[in-house]
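Write out the 3D structure for:
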Amino acid sequence: MKFAKPIILASQSPRRIQLLRQIGWNPAVMPCDVPEVFDPGRTPVENVKDLALKKAGCVAREVKEGVIIGADTIVVLDGEMLGKPADAEDAVRMLQRLSGKTHTVYTGIALLDAASGRTMVDVEATQVTFRDIPEDEIREYVAGGSPMDKAGAYGIQDDYGAVFVTRIQGCYYNVMGLPLATLHSRMKEFQQPSAD
């Protein structure tokens, strides 16, 4: 895909950067410090859309030109939203709860044109099923430090978290934190000249 304007990723997530490079995009990276706090009075979809847009908006205040990509991912189990673990014991608790169950991963993506302020926001949902995970495996995984920067305290790629997953229904890349097919489609739409 060719871009008429610079592409800026409002995230320092190495996974999101890697995914964009995988599809031939080479964004500038400008992380923005937006607290990832969920509003329990709003749905998971509303929360991830709102946080993705806030992240993009934060970067938009710093640049004059470019299309900014904001993204936010959460894990939802039995209606409860799980973000990144607060500490190692929180990570252990999250994984114990996810063990043997199916949860949903939601990622909100926001596109924001810095010059015009125009936005487009979407969300992707993927169902993920875990096998029953023994406590010693959970504690060994958490001790390695990998889960600490991941929603739901696990990564499906690059590490031991991959062997927890027995089934996935939906976009695999969404579980990594960036639904590539949805993002690609939305970016194509976003780059079309506006009708007005």
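The radius of gyration is 17 Å.
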